[in-house]
Design goal:
- The structure is a single chain.
- The longest helix has 33 residues.
- Helix content is 79%, strand content 0%.
- The protein is globular.
- The C terminus is likely disordered.
- The protein is an all-alpha fold and 428 residues long.
Length: 428
Amino acid sequence: MGNATEWFDYGVYAYTATYISRAFFPDDLESATLLTLGIFAVSFLVRPLGGLVWGPLGDRLGRKHVLALTIILMGTATFLIGVIPSYASIGFWAPVLLVILRMIQGFSTGGEYGGAATFMAEYSPDRKRGFYGSFLEFGTLGGFSLGALVVLAVDLLSTDAFMDTWGWRLPFFVAGPLALIGLYMRSKLEDTPVFRELENEDAVEHKTSTQFRELIATYWRPILTLMGLVVALNVCNYTLLSYMPTYLESRIGLSSTSSLFLVVIGQFAMMLVIPFAGALSDKVGRKPLWLVSMVGLLIFAIPMYMLMTVNVGWAIVAFTVLGLLYVLQLSTISATFPAMFPTHVRFAGFAIAYNVSTSLFGGTAPAANEWLVERTGNDLVPAFYMMGACVVGLIALLFVAETAGASIRGRGVPGVDTDAHPSALQKS
């Protein structure tokens, strides 16, 4: 629920990008849209700073405390975006305030995602970590879908004039109460059993400088490997889930209502499949699912983007096919990434590696796609972009240890210093 709240906030911005561009950038629509997507990317540039701050804190103070702080920061920043006056009212300060609030969102998310995934993984039984962990991504898509549904509902019940003034702001106001609900639910949970075990053994690392030295000197290989996987994961994620409505409206000519309807249907299909894909990874391993996903996207990206141009019905089919292939990666994040590090540096290692890679290649994907499409005039650019990211991910996958069924307790590296228990894959 907490993760859904965080990603509702991101989704609302992505799905109202066209309206935001008109409110904050008095220019022609194409340039304004590119600037709006550029500000979307700005929050991702701050995420590594959030990872550097929140990650070590999560390994020292516990996962629970950090997650409580990040959800409040995110909810507050999102709510305030809805009250920023337009460029017509306060001029230059309107986009400046938008950038500041997006940076606060990015700083918050730098700790949220790594913490939430670590929390899920450390609460899950070793043999069912894929299944239980997949519900974090069920929440991610649930947040995106809720954001799309709220924007769609307001759009359908409003006139164009109202949407351009106050209508687009209403979904941002929903973030306030959602954050409070998420905070309440998180406050009722104990910290993870794995972290409490480390605390009881007095094995928690209390110095951030020591954590950083150990990460760089000892765990540089899993850091680089995780970053490579995240290139594939998040370029596909933000190209499909964040950029798609803008792409369909500006390049294919769909209405905002049709584009949101398409994305919601595709995301619901992905949500239905996620738990089954997570459970499958407990039986066959994480690596086979990643392999099928990335090879499948390499094969089908171009045909599916071509299919989108036929009509709305085929666009729904094409988006759903790409989404279901992507789900095989998405469903295993909480099982795969936290298990690449031992407990005492898990939050920091995950948060730093994930957010550095995401800031460079994930959040920049919508703006990069829009810029490349404008410069080349080729509407297949998003397909090429996803394919290039999958090549990077396939190279990184060669260096990933299989961790399905492996214990993630203690200071050993799962799947390397602890057994992956092949028998667990057969008995799950």
